What we know:
There is one protein chain. The protein is of the alpha/beta class. It has helices spanning 9-12, 36-48, 63-69, 92-98, 115-126, 137-140, 147-151, 162-169, 173-178, 180-190, 226-239, 244-266, 273-278, 280-286; strands spanning 25-29, 53-59, 75-79, 104-107, 132-134, 156-158, 194-197, 203-205, 211-213. It has one domain (22-286): UDP-N-acetylmuramoyl-L-alanine:D-glutamate ligase (3-Layer(aba) Sandwich), CATH 3.40.1190.20. The chain is globular. The model has no long low-confidence stretch (mean pLDDT 96).
Amino acid sequence: MLKLMRLPARLLLRKADSHKGDYGHILIIAGSAGFSGAALLCAASAIRSGAGLVTLGLPKGINLAITRNKPKEVMTLPLAQTAEGFLSKGAFIQIRDFLKKIDVLIIGPGLGNNKSTYALVRKIIKAQTLPTVIDADGINALCKNLAILKNHKGEFILTPHEKEFARLFGIGIGFVKKNRKLVAKRYSKYYNSTIILKGHNSTVTSAMGQCYINKTGNPGMATAGSGDVLSGIVGAFLAQGLDSFMAAKYATYVHGLAGDIAAKDKTQMGLIASDIIEHIPDAIKKCS
């Protein structure tokens, strides 16, 4: 039987006179026409994992649909978009000004494959030093632009699956599969980033050489949106004061444990990403 990991007191204990600002404000840059679900899952996960405030920065064309379906606690920031419904690089000024109000940035879920969006992502990352979670199309935007990672001074957490990892760093997928721990540690150190290499027994590594192999989770979590849920938990734990490696480590554990609890209720076959979010509080309770 898996021995339960206890979460840090910083996450579990709250002062009687605390307020929402004490638990961080997250901006999630996410979504595009046809891919609003990723943004919703990430935001719902972040607010359910203890973040004080969550704002979704998304293309203005999907703002109404998101507003109708998002958790009531999540705010939105409608942004300039391309004719096809992707975020436009013209949104940069609005985002740059909003960055002054937040504590943590999550960028990537559901952004889509678009040159203007990728240019915007790179510009945003260069312009700030906030703790930043980079997922999905945020990672794709950095392919062939790794100098951004190398020269950046802030805390980065990258959350690639094996194929994204191979594409980002230009190495063979077969080599990644056979050498998960080796490659994650190597590229974390070289690019001064925390990496969550997702998959069976997700591997979490830091620039300082720390390495954690996660044992929670199950095959039922191989479903659309599961990674977006993980990014939201990571961002929430960053917002509540954990450093990048600790946030990634504990978030990966809680994500997998919530999925295990959900699978007992829904079965692995019937498990969807929303079920993981529903059981995040149960996972946290078990780790308290």
